[in-house]
Amino acid sequence: MIYLVRHGETIWNTLGRYQGVKDSPLTSQGVRQANDVAMLLQREIAGSEGSFELSVSPLGRTQQTAAILQSVLPINKSDDERLIEVSAGSWDGLTTFEIENEFPGMLRETTPYDWYFKSPDGESLDQACHRARAWLANVRKPTIAVSHGLFGRILRGIYLDMSVREMLELAVPQDGFFALDEGHVRAVFC
Length: 190
Description:
Layout: E1 2-6, H1 11-15, H2 28-44, E2 53-56, H3 60-72, E3 77-79, H4 96-102, H5 125-138, E4 143-147, H6 149-159, H7 164-168, E5 176-181, E6 184-189
Parallel strand pairs: 1-4, 2-3, 2-4
Antiparallel strand pairs: 1-5, 5-6
Helix pairs in contact: 2-3, 5-6
């Protein structure tokens, strides 16, 4: 059993900045979202908290979200680099407007779902999928994973053996989580 949580809303989320491996803190709304998710998770795993581990991307926004979860769920946490967000290289921290101005023509013929893989120095889709497969293959016990929007899409897509287009179009809410269990994914929202 895996519960996949996306970090709460960040300042850069509200500004339309693609964070990648750069960071910005949670907004007050993001803190509320993380608290709500913690309460939902508490109800979901009531009585079995001790059998779960908390696996977290090392970035600040996921660490902040995980700390909120731990304030409600007394479970051990470990950081895992494989859960980090996909990097768009020199495009991390930029808006699409800034990318279009600084890298003219690079976003031509892209969709809202695949543009981040057009960066000349970013992580490729194949590299991100390899990370997702490696992380999923190493899950040995019930786990709550705190990760990111794009990487969460990829994790769920790999888990469900989806096409690239299907996985990149998956929803990435910050007010709930996904339960991955026995080949199925169930969304749980606040």
